[in-house]
Amino acid sequence: MTGSLALNMIPMSSFYKRITVFVAVLGLAVATPVSTWAQGLGLGLGIAGATKTYDHTLDTNLVQAVRGGQVDEVQSLLKRGADPNAKDTDKYVSPVLMLAAGENENQDILRALLADKANVEITNAQGATPLIMASVDSHVESVKILLNAGAKIDARTSLGLTALMVAASAGELETTRFLLANKADVNARSKDNGTALIYGSAKTIAGTGNLDIIKTLVEAGADVGVTATNGKNAIATAKAYGLDNIATYLTEIETRDRALFNAVARAYADRNTPNSTAWDAVKTALDAGANPRFTTADGRTSLMFLAYDIPGCDAKTLQYFVSHSDLSAQEQQFGATALHLAVDNGNVTMVSLLIIAGAPQDIREKDGKTPLELAKTKENQAIILLLTPTKKDDDDDDTPEIPFFV
Predict the structure, then answer these.
(1) What is the pLDDT of residue 396?
(2) Which residues, in sequence order, are bridge partners of residue 24?
(3) Would you say residue 73 has pLDDT above 90?
(4) Neighbouring-strand partners of residue 31
(5) 87 — phi, psi (to 5°)?
(6) Which H/E stretch holds residue 282?
(7) CATH code, 1-43+159-242
(8) What is the pLDDT of residues 266-290, one digit of tens each?
(9) 318: closest CA among 406, 387, 386?
(10) What does the alpha-carbon distance between residue 268 and residue 258 come to, in Å, rounded to a whole number?
(11) What's the pLDDT tens digit per position in 240-256?
(12) How far is residue 21's CA from residue 169's CA, in Å, rounded to a whole number?
């Protein structure tokens, strides 16, 4: 993508309460009239209804009843065979379940549609699910209903946006907290490499970012170092929108987290120095609450240094880094993951820990090698055995035969 991330998901507040929105285009806030605000959405979540032509059928009548909040009529139409997965004829092809959860929220109708086996993962033309739409504008009760019905909390739109990204950008603190409490991925990335933290650091329709949401995301482990495809991280995004309070707070967090990264890097550099005390700085940074997941602009993480044996790093601390790091992260120079680096160093313990933690084994570095292929070039039989899929009899359980070192 050229130029800006363009914040392809625009923070929204109530369509009926606001007269303008700010659409981020190439880093600029552009005022858009209400009549065209839906078209201005880079991701086109499709909240605004367009002019519709209805046929006199059960399904189109169901759409009208849902939009009108007519609970009894909805129930009657469903009993007569109306499709609970019917869609509106608006430009976003909005499913009735989505309307009941979001734009035309009515929890009684929402429950009635779900009871009639509406597809909880049904999408509109932009790939948004009812859960994503319910996360836009203070519909936390609908969010709860949908999750209880089995909605996927990290479902994505066609542009890779999740409900958490939408809620953070829309300034919905209660929804953000609820999604995180239900294990939404705080570091999920959109196709523009945006995160909930980055989207939440942009100016919302109300004109201000929500610092409480930003703090909530950071406390949940959001990586402040992630850079979107426009070259901006959350701090730069906040500065671009003039949100100085958010930028100041995130700068403090970035300083804290970078201190841990730098301490691990120094311990790595001093790993062959006798009596080195470099690891002490790592302990200090961890005690200060630094996030091990912190990613630099060139894609490096602390875990990549820990792929090498570093004196002072005990098994418990190593496991902590593994369980709090992005195991898919690739540094930019060689495209290597922590697993590639552990294989390259012949670190059997680290390879085992990463496999147990679910590190992806199909990622290829810039020379085109997976970790297993790299292990074969190194002729490290112990690691080759760990990375080679084993065939088991049907009577055997599926537990991997991986040595447990911790």
Answers:
(1) 53
(2) 29
(3) yes
(4) 22
(5) -125, 150
(6) helix 279-287
(7) 1.25.40.20
(8) 999 999 998 889 999 999 999 999 9
(9) 406
(10) 15
(11) 999 999 999 999 999 99
(12) 13
pLDDT of residue 30: 27
Where do the structural domains in the chain lie, given as residue ranges? 1-43+159-242, 252-387
Identify the residue whose tokens are 């680096």.
341
Exposure string of 320-347, with b = 16+ CB inside 10 Å and e = fewer, is ebbeebbbebbbeeebbbbbbbbbbbeb
Q: How far is CA 18 from CA 12, 34, 241, 318, in A?
A: 9, 8, 19, 50
For residue 19, pLDDT beyond 90: no
Nearest CA among 249, 241, 246, 251 for reference residue 203: 241
**Sign (positive or negative) of CA dihedral 72, 78, 80, 86:** positive
pLDDT at residue 349 greater than cutoff 50 = yes
CB 169 within 8 A of CB 209: no
Which residue bears the tokens 């806030």?
29
25 CB burial (10 A radius; 0-12, 13-18, 19+): middle
The more confident residue out of 300 and 9 is: 300
The lowest-confidence range among 64-78, 154-168, 311-325, 378-392 is: 378-392
To which residue do tokens 């994505």 refer?
Answer: 156
> Mean per-residue pLDDT for 103-114?
96
Two structure tokens written together for 371: 């970790």
pTM to 2 decimals?
Answer: 0.81
Query: Locate tokens 């909530």: which residue?
Result: 216
Pick the CATH number of 252-387 from 2.70.98.60, 1.25.40.20, 1.25.40.10, 1.20.1730.10: 1.25.40.20
Q: Which of 92-96, 118-122, 176-180, 290-294 has the lowest mean pLDDT?
A: 92-96
**Using CA atoms, how far apart are residues 137 and 76, in angstroms rounded to an integer?**
29
Same fold flag, 1-43+159-242 and 252-387? yes
CA dist 14 and 155 (Å) reads 23
User: HSE (CB half, 13 Å, CA atoms) of 190?
Assistant: 29
> Tokens 């402040």 appear where?
224
Could you give phi then psi for residue 29, rounded to 5 degrees? -90, 120
